[in-house]
Amino acid sequence: MTTPTSCAYCQQRATQLCAGCRSVVYCSREHQKEHWKRGHKRECKCYEVTSNELLGRHLRATRDIRMGEQIMCEAPLVVGPKVAATPLCLGCHRNLLAPQKPAMTFYKCSSCSWPMCSKECEKSPFHLDECRLMAASNFQSKINYNPADPEGKESAYCVIMLLRCMQLKRSNPEAFARLAALEDHLKERIETPLYQVLRANLITFIKTVLGQRDWPELEILRIAAILDTNAFEVRQNGERRKVRAIFPGGAMIAHDCVPNLRHRFDDNMRIIFLAKRPIPKGAILSISYTQPLRSTVQRRVHLKQVKCFDCACERCSDPTELGTFAGAHLCGKCKVGKVISQNPLENAANWHCQLCNVKKSAREVLTQDARLQQEIESLDKTTPVHLEEFIQGHRIDLHDTNTHILQAKYALTQLYGTAPGYAMDELSEESLKRKVDLCEELLQISNLFDGGWSIFRGNLLIDLEEALVAQALRLQLASECESKLKRAEELLEEIKNIMKHEPEEMQQMLAERQQILNAAMAPFSVGVE
Ligand SMILES: C[S@@+](CC[C@H](N)C(=O)[O-])C[C@H]1O[C@@H](n2cnc3c(N)ncnc32)[C@H](O)[C@@H]1O
């Protein structure tokens, strides 16, 4: 594309390129501002919506995108609780704190009895329409504080997001049309046990108890299916928020098991997408709808179940998973070869040992994987002990980069340095070295699965930096100490870049890391003896 030479506002000769889309130029800052107000705001994008048979609609870069560039910021169209949620306020969406003694009961909305923070939150625009509807049908929520299970999930919340979407049809038809234009996969979902339960319980409740008889059952089910296909989980840990929301622009982004974008949420629950690595013009923009450390079988089964498609990305198509063999097991016969799928895009394909060619059926592999996943999920993860035992105990059947071993190793990077009895200054030399080695090892893996400026990589670098400083401070030899601190310094610079758009708590934590590092480096500064 050749760069234009006349100002997009006044058509005079101009050279100042718009940094957003890089497809228009201006003669002055003033004309750029005027052009923005006159509509460039809507057009200034570095991607276009396009469509193909495999992905459906998706986004494609219309120019080269730099690593770390923010490419989209979008406010939610609808926000609401997840299908099952711990009690939360329907006004501000914060999880509710345990009520004070002696009442031991949540504050309840004076009209519909749903638990809320306070009278203030009752008036929140998020809650008004549903509150009116429930009050008009004399429905009163029964959710209350349960001291025996304060974190317990309430399935009654599943109705709220559906109602909010349905109410848009009357309150904001344009927004409803944007919602209704999203993919649903209702054909695939409708026969599933989950949708049969929805039909029997939720739809009946909405139509009979809440009096929404005019709504055809299929139309309500279609909204449920749109939510299942497109909603993002909005997590704001500092704000005690974990809800779901629809972002119609963000919903156009395709999945890839090695994605090039990451997303975060700002204080107003807007979603912001950033490029994790340089993205060339023409490339498909992607996020991951699943977890990077899971194996191909696990990811593909999950994607099929929740998003109704068969992933055929580069990682899924490669039986070695980019050389990591994450889905492979060690061969039970020759003990050294890795057993891999003969066709990873075909779930029923046989598996075979790369060395001795011994065969295993897909069913055997799936059963073994399910057992291992259950084993790892049921482990006590309050300290590193059981995870280390898991790794040790599976030395003969699982190799170093098998998915289950990687998951255990990732959990260990989090526990060494924080678990009770394993705080950084309590770690033995051996445990500290183990933490460093695990971080280094997982960083290699993250470079393949979730590289560049990913949060996964950023978090690993944070753990590694902290462990290196702790190691350095224990060293006797000044030169060794200095070289470890220099490495930590380089890592901290990189972490700051990766995390520069993350919330205030992260910036504070990084400022504290910088202070600790500065203090450790002080003896090596020029002029200090
Ligand atoms: C959030 S929507 C994305 C937008 C959607 N393509 C559309 O046209 O509305 C998710 C759906 O997009 C499709 N999709 C996304 N990534 C895909 C991929 N890597 N392979 C195949 N289909 C994909 C699937 O149908 C999936 O359920």
TrEMBL record:
Keywords noted in UniProt: Metal-binding, Zinc, Zinc-finger
Domain spans labelled MYND-type: 7-44
MF GO annotations: N-methyltransferase activity; protein methyltransferase activity; S-adenosylmethionine-dependent methyltransferase activity; zinc ion binding
Limits of the SET domain: 44-290
Matches recorded under InterPro entries: SET_dom, SET_dom_sf, SET_SmydA-8, Znf_MYND
One Pfam family cited in the UniProt record for this chain: SET
PANTHER family reported for this sequence: SET AND MYND DOMAIN CONTAINING, ARTHROPOD-SPECIFIC, MEMBER 2 (PTHR46455:SF1), SET AND MYND DOMAIN CONTAINING, ARTHROPOD-SPECIFIC, MEMBER 4, ISOFORM A (PTHR46455)
Name the record gives this protein: GH16955
The encoding gene: Dgri\GH16955
